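Backbone geometry:
***
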Amino acid sequence: MRNTPAPTTATLGPTATPESGAWHLLGLIAPLVTLTGIIAGQPAAGAILVLVLYPLVDLALARPAPSRAARSDGQGLSLLLYIHVLLHTSVIVALCWRAAVDGNTAATWIAMLSVGINSGSSGIIVAHELGHSSARSINHWLGRWNLLLTLYLHFTIEHNRHHHPAVATDTDPASAPRERNFWQQLAYTLPAQFKSAWVLAGCSGSQQRFNPVLRGLLLQSILVIGIWQGLSGSVALAFVGQALIGIFMLEYVNYIRHYGLRRERGAPVTAQHSWQTEARWSRWTLLELTRHPAHHLHPGRHFWALQPCPDAPTLPAGYYALFWPALIPPWWRRLMDPLLEPGNRPQ
């Protein structure tokens, strides 16, 4: 449950005022561009926006904004999450429509790429935020809905029950050690996280049929088969493809925000065990996902209440700007490995 009180303006001084929540509306640009691009016959628009233009904007707005007080309430930002869910669903529906009309064509697969990127940068990120809500609440079910559309229903179990307590240890599949590049981490973490979620959910004896991971698998299979039978094989393949790309984007984010940071099992989790960045474009469009150390220290806080940790290791750029370097291991290591020496970490 989210029951951790956030810092208030009063605790930070009478002149400290929260940053405007309107900046987070910028996060709606990508799903809106993806949706309109598919409808208007420009299926590459979403991919070009996020993979080409956003890294440049991220670099241009890399300078942190002045320190401001945390918000004590959402003041409409909860509604923003619901808009993201609606847009994420609409983008998936638009992809299915495009695939049904165009069939097995380049336009379908380009649309699949754009939609998959949006599934990672909007769908799963919002599901992560909603997944920390009370069980069986409307937020919980909306988060599950987003994960169903990305075929990653086991994520909440693994993330909440294993990743958080095990972060930066050898037992956490989502925390990449220094010697592992992104492609190696991707091949390792996907089956390892699923296995961990399966074990956590309980899969032995009479409990097996009630295992929520098994139920999720069955539900996802029924959805894909239903799309295949009700629409076409091309639609089903496009749907599965966008889900895989969305998962790829999620695991890229997991990689960069935990790379090389380790702690001994049993040692307390501190701000030193995940990377943060105050790059403004990443912050505003990704629902403060970049303040990840604060999220690990206070997982019950909403995204709008998170604050940067002054003693956390800081990434050299925002999430968008680091996408291409992370895919090229020598480039990534030149950027990151020097920062793993404590005296070289930018604060």
Summary: Residues 3-15 have pLDDT under 50 and may be disordered. The two ends are 31 Å apart (CA to CA). The CA atoms of residues 258 and 274 lie 5 Å apart.
